[in-house]
Amino acid sequence: MRVLSGIQPTGRPHWGNYFGAIQQYIDLQHEDESYYFVANLHAMTTIRDKEVMWAHTYDAALDLLALGLDPNKATLFIQSDVPEVSELCWLLLSVTPMGLLERCVSYKEKVSKGLSSNAGLFTYPVLQAADILAYDADIVPVGEDQVQHIEVCRDIAGSFNHLFGEVFVLPKARVLDSSAKVPGTDGQKMSKSYGNTIELFEDLKPQRKKIMRIQTDSRPMEEPKDPEGDHLFELYSLFASEPEIAEMATTYRQGGFGYGAVKKAIADVSESYFAEARARREALVAEPETVHEILADGARRARKKAGEVLLRAQQASGLKR
Ligand code: TYM
């Protein structure tokens, strides 16, 4: 089984990225082949500052390594280091109906939030399809918001295969029920574009302050509360053990507690949960050479595979003999 996924460097990776996707990357890195990349070409549709682009790209790679991605098992690379994918993207664009892209919610959402619409933003799902198809990926571990893009990828691959023969493997999304949609500090889906994220490795003091400011309702302390659907309870459950979660659920149902106590519990449990990764990250920051070597080696391995698949598509469509 071949696994692939990517993360955009539009900001520092956050809890939603980790529990929705990165945790799955780590679990699945033992599969036959796995590919994980920092999607800087996707970020090109929105980032306009070269320093920000580079810093976030490098940081995301560092975060993935610190969180336990093992470069001896998984191939880790930066998207733009594999030009074969951009070339494959053109072949796919040429068989993609406009209507398919017009139905994509992420484009509509971004434009409605005031992002200027450019052709890259509109055709973004086709580049994502190229990312996936270039490596013959069977499984794509993602959060719920990316499921539509994987469906679009299957549609595009299906169209190409229908026209030119069985060139592409049709991938499947892998979404965890427990963390498909991690809530942010305002209770909505945690997302860089909503400004409601808690970053994995921000300094502990400001992070704790941010956790203590998570929005809640104004029900009185003594009132019993249903833990189901409560975003503080959801966040706590991501980090806590089964008995701790059961105890917190009982506290909710009994009432007589303040939300401040739950926030403090989240801050404590999240701090210890990521303590090891934080220490690994500090060590990696001091070794930029090692990180650059890992990324160069990853790009070399990724290019080999993507080159084979691109050639297959070129031959099938008559671009090459
Ligand atoms: P991105 O960078 O927005 O997010 C990276 C991963 O994190 C997941 N995620 C969440 N999961 C649960 N709850 C949340 N609040 C939450 N926020 C983010 C996302 O679902 C994603 O899995 N288009 C992609 C990047 C990409 C890609 C690909 C992914 C480019 N090419 C090919 C898979 C395969 C994106 O913007 O993810």
Key attributes of the depicted protein:
single chain; 321 residues; mainly alpha; Rossmann fold; Tyrosyl-Transfer RNA Synthetase; three-stranded parallel β-sheet; two-stranded parallel ribbon; 14 helices; 56% helix; binds tryptophanyl-5'AMP
Q: What is the assigned CATH homologous superfamily of the largest domain?
A: HUPs
* Series of H and E elements: EHEHHEHHHHEHEHHHHHH
| Helix share bin | 55-70%
- Largest beta-sheet characterization: 3 strands, parallel
CATH hierarchy class name of the largest domain: Alpha Beta
Distance between the termini: 29 Å
Explain this structure to me?
This protein is mostly helical. The chain folds into two domains: 210 residues, 3-Layer(aba) Sandwich (Rossmann fold), CATH 3.40.50; 72 residues, Tyrosyl-Transfer RNA Synthetase (Orthogonal Bundle). The chain has 14 helices and five strands. The radius of gyration is 21 Å and the shape is globular. The model has no long low-confidence stretch (mean pLDDT 96). The site of tryptophanyl-5'AMP has 26 residues, from β1, α1 and α7.
